[in-house]
């Protein structure tokens, strides 16, 4: 294999969990092959992402060369689009909170809804954007799923409103809320941009964004198009130590959005009858992870059957739950206010 062939191969490799390849992500510098020796220069923006990409490439390429030298180009600069100086498609929002995770099903949407409501209970003006275009759950969780959007006189989309928050989701635009969307990701991204720009959000103290799982196009676009004040990562005790979570942390760091905090969801179990607490998956995982990556730990929420049942029927615990349940989410807001310098 010569230098050109190696470059071609590298350009078409996909960074784990990313929809884009290494060329599209602008991660490749000089590539050189001399007999059975190859040298690859990477344009990663920090040590963590360099180590991760290096490990990945060594695994992919070790059988092809006797020696493989992979180094980072210095000085390191950010090369992912415009994330170092993101656009601001939501100048009406004083703070933007992105709720993310490396894995699906860990409770991003549930936390987003209740976090947004807890913020609104404190008197803030809050919008909640469902960025999970392919699995939009926010309308069901906020009991707005039978509503359909309309337009105001300024030709702006009027968001739904419930529990003191403004809500926008692609599920409010489809004929039925469970109509499946078969969109290319570029179309999904355009729809989200429209939700940022053409919705009558008014002035917001907080725009909370419920992100889809993983680290794909939508996350990249949001990081490029919005100055995210705080990205919070949701984990569960089971996923706490997984590669996906570390990957999400590193990727967000790499695209210029640092993690503002970790929330451990479904952390422990409270028996509904005896109220006894069981640490089914051990405890302290989220906190240890926060320490490892030097990210604030914002708190844990138990695995609570009522949270699931109430959420499914559109009765968010932060608004309609017991005082204990309200407390879980209100406490998150307090911890966030302690750790993150919001613009309020
Ligand atoms: N603390 C909790 N206790 C009990 N059930 C919970 C809790 N948090 C979330 N759930 C339930 O877990 C399921 C997944 O939650 P949710 O939809 O919020 O996750 P998600 O990370 O947004 O998933 P996806 O990646 O599919 O968007 C839902 O049925 C929800 O009601
Ligand atoms: Mg979700």
Commentary on this structure:
The protein is α/β, with parallel strands linked by helices and about 350 residues long. The protein has two domains: about 5-70, Fe-S cluster assembly (FSCA) (GMP Synthetase, Chain A, domain 3); about 95-340, P-loop containing nucleotide triphosphate hydrolases (Rossmann fold, 3-Layer(aba) Sandwich). Helices cover about 35% and strands about 20% of the residues. The protein is built from eleven helices and 14 strands. The chain has helices at about 5-10, 45-60, 110-120, 140, 185-195, 215-225, 245-255, 285-295, 305-310, 315-320, 325-340; strands at about 30-35, 35-40, 65-70, 95-100, 125-130, 150, 155-160, 160, 165-170, 205-210, 230-235, 260-270, 275-280, 295-305. The strands form three sheets. Strands 4, 5, 8, 9, 10, 11, 12, 13 and 14 form a nine-stranded mixed β-sheet that branches. A three-stranded mixed β-sheet has the order 1-2-3, with helices on one face. Strand 6 and strand 7 form a beta hairpin. Helix 3 packs across helix 11 (about 325-340) and helix 5 (about 185-195) packs parallel to helix 6. The longest helix is centred in the last third of the chain and has 17 residues, at about 325-340. The chain is globular and about 70 Å long. The termini are far apart. Mean pLDDT is about 90; it is low at about 75-80.
